[in-house]
Amino acid sequence: MTQLGNAASSAGRGGHKETVEVLAGRILDGTYGEGKALALPDLTAELDVSQTVVREALKLLAAKGLVDAHQKGDSVVRPREDWNLLDSDVLRWKLAAGASSDFFADMLELRRSIEPAAAALAAERRTDDDLAVLDAAVSTMAVPDADPALLIRADASFHTAMLLASNNRFYAQLQRVIVPVLIQRDRAVHAGGGEFEHPHPAHAAVVEAVRARDVDGAYMAMLELLDKSAHGHP
After folding, report:
1. Domain boundaries, position 17
2. Position 233 pLDDT exceeds 80
3. Nearest to 182, CA basis, from 217, 215, 145, 137
4. Could you please report the per-residue DSSP string of 18-69?
5. Based on the domain organization, do 82 and 140 belong to the same domain?
6. In the chain, how long is the greatest CA-to-CA distance?
7. CB 213 within 8 A of CB 168
């Protein structure tokens, strides 16, 4: 049985949650393209669940911008620009379905507009606890021949801690968008097996500027770190 078939079987056994996952996966991977009509009777038969389960699943997907759901009749897959990529579930489904280089480029542009400013705020507002988390992440990066999985976790911890250290509630929330994409990208970089600059120096430079409460230095150090990321470095 194919993976898609297994997913459909899971929907039949499990109900609402599994039905949401199956439908979302098919939308995000293009199986159900933009403008595709999703007929309630067809989905009910295919997934072996009740109309109530399918209807509730479509309501949830509608709230996330993936479909226009109607109480009666067909629902329709909405254009990609309507999908709420800031929603953690939609982002997870997108990454699972496969993200293009353009997707990662768009995320890098978002990060360049957010993370240097967050680092500058962290230089003003950081606490000793914030520094402890940042130091721990950078220390892990400094370990010679560290396992790639450890480096990826350390990178995620670093960027999460920096956004939190900004003590801006909106920047802090953006960890839910930035960090999952960062992890996916780091995995791809390490899996590529090519030569790249070790991540420790660039990350340590940001932390030292934050420690010194050097607002401009923290901004520029984070910008430089992201510029390295644009050239394929972790």
Report:
1. 10-88
2. no
3. 137
4. HHHHHHHHHHHTTSS-TT-EE-HHHHHHHHT--HHHHHHHHHHHHHTTSEE-
5. no
6. 63
7. no
Cα angle, residue 17 at apex, residues 12 and 21 outer, rounded to 5°: 85
pTM of the model: 0.84
SS3 37: strand
In tens, the pLDDT along 60-116 reads 999 999 999 876 667 999 999 999 999 999 999 999 999 888 999 999 999 999 999
Instruction: Establish if 137 belongs to a structural domain.
Output: yes
Neighbours of 45 (CB within 10 A): 11
Cβ(173)–Cβ(87) under 8 Å? no
69 plus 177 within the same structural domain:
no
Angle formed at CA 18 by CA 16 and CA 22, multiple of 5 degrees? 115
Distance, CA of 165 to chain centre: 20
Determine how many CB atoms are found less than 10 A away from the CB of residue 173: 11
Number of neighbouring beta carbons within 10 Å of residue 3: 8
Structural domain count of the chain: 2
Report the distance separating Cα 137 and Cα 158, nearest Å: 6
38 and 109 belong to one structural domain: no
Same domain, 124 and 189: yes
State the DSSP H helix or E strand holding residue 77, giving kind and residue range, or none if neither. Answer: strand 75-77
51 and 159, same domain (yes or no): no
CATH number at residue 38: 1.10.10.10
